[in-house]
Design goal:
Length: about 120
């Protein structure tokens, strides 16, 4: 499981993977979020991991990570209500999910066909 955190300083979302002690940068050195990572994987664009990334005393391998993340980058969801220290959707929260135009999802109560809306900067 990865974390998608908003950096107020950078005014952007950033993907952090605590399992691999990982964050990713694009070819220009910009920190990446789940949306930009998915687009880069699809295009075959270069992605760079932080130097100390790895898991269980093994060096980080981008090809292995791409294979691992292929399934997880297809479908995103998040809650609409958050509390300090929560890791999962709490009671009474609504799941928010981006879906393709014409796609129906029975899990999410709130969907959008706009990646921009899903990854909008929090207010």
């Amino acid at each position: 499981m990865v974390t998608h955190a908003f950096s107020r300083e950078l005014q952007q979302w950033i993907m952090l993977d605590p399992t691999f002690r990982l964050y990713l940068r694009d070819e220009y050195g910009n920190l990446m979020n789940l949306y930009t990572i998915r687009r880069a994987f699809a295009k075959g664009a270069p992605i760079f991991a932080n130097a100390n990334a790895g898991h269980n005393n093994r060096r980080f391998n981008m090809r292995e990570y791409q294979r691992l993340m292929a399934n997880y980058l297809f479908r995103f969801s998040t809650g609409t209500t958050f509390t300090f220290g929560s890791e999962e959707l709490g009671v009474g929260t609504t799941q928010f999910m981006p879906v393709p135009v014409g796609f129906y999802d029975t899990i999410a109560k709130k969907t959008t066909t706009s990646a921009e809306a899903f990854f909008a900067i929090p207010r």
